[in-house]
Design a protein that fits this description.
This protein is mainly beta. The protein has three domains: about 1-185 and about 435-445; about 195-285, Immunoglobulin-like, CATH 2.60.40; about 290-415, Immunoglobulin-like. The chain is about 10% helix and about 50% strand. The protein is built from four helices and 30 strands.
Length: about 450
């Protein structure tokens, strides 16, 4: 009996030691740095994995947190902040912040955090932390998960940006942390650029993959064409990263002409040996007859009125509906004073666009044959109720035409797209990175171990 008690006490002592080590007082590992608003920032620590915790209290229960049950943690009010990631290979940075501004700023700090590599590439800066704890009224402990970082690199660059400073000189500090996540991912093989994907009579070339940009051109029947355009572009890696392009330039009328460019918010890290780049390619002209629907003599409703049209056409097994058309709306401000007008709006209903189908308004002309300019005002999925899957979508097009137009002819297209795929390595950030580096030459750079 006595021997059992001794063993139990010994195990408890070991557990206490482990708990004390695991949650030792957190001294700043980098910093402090002074922000423009006068607050002070310092790095409390870095944690890795799926479950993350950081202590900000000094009570006995805070130190015993690792061995306490959830009920006891709640009962004793442990001052420990947790972040549970969806990623088992996550990195969380913890920062102490001391300053008077946070009690009135909804706990949104005046700084942002970004990951970087050694070639000028930088992730999109995060400005909302994953976890926050407040103590002593104006002091904060904040936890930030790095959503995008160079996963194969042995070190991760960190940049702190101050929102109150001028955009190009707002780096408060720059330092490196060790990458203790898994780095032995599969290795994909890149193709040399330019790389060509051929489908039917189209040749789509990936000309360049540069940090956060992908550049393409399209050849149809052996000639460069602007009758097709690049739509959404995605890039994924063997390390599990996946990015969607934020912008796509080079559609008809764009000064980029026949070279089409897609941009990503986050960079395609240079330590990745190959990125799988998928690009949607869509017609912008010369649609096949089976994809077109032409409607004649659609009358424009009177001022402030809307007319239900409810004309339907089946294309590729999907029902496209010209639902309604609204008339001009006159706005006066102040009442009785000079007014301005909202042009007519065309409302079209169609099944949700799949990965290879897209609805387009091709052309609108008035009763005199004059071309009517238009632009897509909105696209919204049709709500199918809580928990239901949306199977339809609505498209609103504003018709920018003269006030005296009585009717219009229009052509819609429900067109099939093409998906092409490449394997390519991202090239250096070149001048983009070097310019940004020079503009922040005065920022502090150091390693954190």
């Amino acid at each position: 009996m006595r021997k059992g008690i001794i063993i139990g006490l010994a195990l408890l002592a070991v557990a206490l030691v482990i708990a004390a080590i695991w949650l030792m007082p957190r001294k700043p590992r980098a910093g402090p740095w002074r922000l423009a608003d006068g607050s002070e920032l310092s790095l409390a620590g870095v944690t890795y994995g799926r479950k993350h915790a950081m202590r900000y209290g000094n009570g006995v229960a805070d130190y015993l947190y690792p061995i306490l049950t959830p009920a006891l943690r709640k009962k004793f009010g442990c001052k420990v902040v947790e972040v549970m990631s969806l990623n088992s290979n996550a990195v969380v940075l913890w920062f102490w912040t001391k300053g008077p501004t946070y009690s009135t700023r909804f706990l949104i700090p005046d700084y942002k955090i970004a990951a970087s590599d050694g070639s000028g590439n930088e992730s999109d800066a995060r400005w909302i932390p994953n976890a926050t704890a407040t103590w002593r009224r104006t002091n904060l402990l904040l936890g930030w998960e790095l959503l995008n970082f160079p996963r194969r690199s042995g070190e991760i660059g960190i940049r702190l940006r101050d929102d109150e400073m001028i955009a190009k000189t707002n780096i408060v500090s720059e330092f490196k942390i060790p990458n203790r996540t898994v780095t032995n991912y599969p290795v994909w093989t890149a193709e040399p650029l330019p790389s060509i994907a051929t489908t039917n009579n189209l040749e789509v070339s990936l000309l360049l993959l540069d940090g956060g940009w992908a550049m393409f051109n399209i050849v149809e029947d052996r000639r460069l064409t602007d009758k097709w355009a690049i739509g959404r572009v995605s890039a994924s890696s063997a390390a599990g990263e996946r990015y969607e392009s934020a912008i796509s330039l080079g559609t008809p009328g764009n000064p980029f002409g026949q070279v089409m460019t897609a941009g990503f918010v986050d960079p395609l890290w240079l330590d990745e040996p190959a990125w799988k780049v998928k690009a949607e390619v869509w017609r912008t002209a010369n649609y096949p007859a089976e994809e077109l629907w032409t409607l004649k003599g659609i009358s424009i409703p009177g001022e402030g009125q809307m007319r239900n049209i409810n004309l339907k056409r089946n294309i590729y097994g999907s029902e496209i509906e010209l639902a309604s058309l609204s008339g001009w709306v006159v706005h006066t401000n102040p009442p009785g004073g000079p007014g301005h007008y909202t042009p007519p709006v065309l409302h079209v209903h169609n099944p949700v666009t799949t990965s290879d189908m897209q609805l387009r308004l091709v052309e609108v002309r008035d009763e005199k044959g004059r071309k009517v300019e238009f632009y897509q005002k909105a696209w919204t999925p049709t709500m199918a109720g809580a928990g239901a899957i949306n199977t339809d979508s609505d498209h609103d097009y504003t018709l920018d035409m003269a006030l005296n137009v009585k009717s219009v002819d229009m052509t819609l297209a429900y067109t099939k797209g093409v998906l092409v795929e490449f394997m390519a390595r991202s090239s250096a950030a070149k001048e983009r990175g070097s310019i940004r580096e020079r503009s922040n030459a005065g920022a502090e750079t150091k390693k954190v171990r």
